[in-house]
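hey m, so remember when u said the tokens were messed up on ur end? i reran from scratch. heres the input so u can diff it against urs
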Amino acid sequence: MNIIQKGPLITVLFISLISGQIEDFVGSAACKSCHPDQFELWENSTHGRAGGSPADTKIKAPFDGKKIILKNGWFIPYKEDGRYFFKAQENEFPEVKFEVIGVVGGGHIYGGGTQSFFGLFPDGTMRLLPFDYHPGNKTWFFETNNLLGWQPASEKLSMRNLSEWPPNRTIGAIIEKKNCQQCHGSQIIVGFDNNRGKYKTLFTELTINCESCHGPGKEHLSLMQFGKSIVKGYTGIQSLKTLSKKESVAVCAQCHALKDLIRPGYLPGMDFEDFFSTKFSMLGGNPYFPDGRVKAFGYQQNHIFSDCFLNGSMTCVDCHNPHSNGYQDINRAPLEGRFDNGQCLSCHVAKANNIRAHTFHKIGSQGSQCTSCHMPFQQHEAVGSQLKFSRADHTISIPRPKLDEKLGVKNACQQCHKNLSIQAIADQMQDWYGELKPLHQLESALIAFETADQLPGDLLNLIGTNMDPYPQVFAGLAAAFMSDQATNQYDKLIQRLKHLCENNDLDIRGVALAYLNLFSEKDKELDSFIIQTLTNAGREQIKIRTRWSIALAYKAERLTKSGLFPAGIEIYNKSISIWPKNDRAKKGLAEAYIMVGDIPEAVKTYGTIVQSDVADWQGWAGLANAQAQSGQLDVALEAYMRSLEINVYNAPAHLGIGNILFKMKNDVLAEKHLAKAIELDPAMTEAYIYLAAIKVRGQDFKGAALVLNRGLILDPAHEIGNMMKRELSQLD
């Protein structure tokens, strides 16, 4: 009983705490009177024009009331009484209406860019609407959920192809929901408020404001009200000029990096590494090529793989003016644009005297620009050739045509010389430059590993030392850790991992400890080493333990997806023992138990989840599902109701309750909950199937066929649904 009383309080306290922290942010307008020049630069920058309400944002999309026809539906963007709306309908489904309350983007990205729109939903979340506009192509388009990539609206495209249909991607980081929109605004925090039974979305502005980089400004305003700092040198706000190379990059990495969430609740000014890892994405479906280039999209933070960062002092603000988003050289002298060689030549002065001797291209031509060869634009992989949507590669790489061909990357030279073969380009570069600077040995090992030129047993080649660059070390370490563990150099591998446990990088230490942990069952001496390493970590111990636990969870997920459930379950348990608050691991473990049919252990695992957080409505729903599978319908119904009490907009709970009530032959109540599940989540196939079954039991065959058809639109291969369809057709 005590546990039950504590749960909601914890969530309410979290919301209150975050609300209090957001109050420390005063908004960009408060900066204007003292910093007019910087404010003007910011106001007209891509950060200052990143988004906002429809009233405050230049709408580039035509909300003209014209119907856009799709293969199995339509949508209409229109304006009414100064407000912006979408109407939409998919065949066989009711018409829906969304009001636009937030706008993101203004087509600022080179080569195109987009404008996206958000609506407010009953559960308190702001969600990305599926209708994007591309000002360059003057077309509505969609991100699709299959190999079609991003596609312009056309009658060839089905509503079922839209990845955001029905709308599901939220603004703000919600672990249990699909999202990537926490960066398109300032100080966005979303949490579940038990008092309201819905989410609470908090933000300062839907632009990238001053405090996104400088941290909360309330104390600064208070200290500077007398025109000077009370304590010399302390102004109550973070100055980018005083930051180290690593700290400076972390400011921009908040948004301009692929990152894994360690825990929610981050606000600018907090310890970035407490909440995020910029390398752990390499443990999942690796988004990087072996040399650090991003496979899917040109996130700029990958410049940490570049020589300019590793062997120099280059940070983002050495090339980008942080206030205007304009361009500058190392001395902060403004440059005309992104293609001005002054960015590079302010450091590489030896090449400034005779650029043509280095580029072999006419001065002033595209080929004479440093960025053309070393920072070529990468088209978003998912976009294909339909829409221009590109960003410059920030690894500042050397063109390597043969390697790019091997990796499936469009090399820099072919972006201009489209008709030249790879061999011809390689021959020309050989003639001009001779032997190119070799890749780092870890990058070469990764290439060999990824292209199957290296046997899995040679894992030691992938793992660097503390003398190697941290990004490359982590990339190799991650590949080795996620492999099948085959090695013919066990002793050397253990020694290498022990040395990496002394690395200054938290991510490297976390994965190195996780790797050693996998061997500790057969080498008990490793336990004492691991304990001592954690002891020596001091105040950083929790950061290392969370990463260690998350790394093990990644490994377990990979194993269970491959059908290796016993091994996956074992590692999930290791992950939880390292960090008991790792809910991702606990839920993964429970699902693994269900997959192997060990329902009692699944029930037990879900029980620990709701005991540690009685307000975890997903945990209650998972517990109920496991209990229902074990035949405990009464207790399962109770658990589902607990889930629903916490979150009334919880569609899976309504589905589960409807399922149980159907089995209990309480069709009236079952139909009510199934209809509510569909209302909350129109893409929930199972709800349509059960609802159709209820109508069949009530002899409403026409109604059953209508509902069933909607479900089969969502999942045409549904076995039970198709069986019901065949049986219904025989009744006609």
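this time it looks ok to me. The first strand starts at residue 51 and ends at 52. if urs says something different then somethings off w ur setup not the seq
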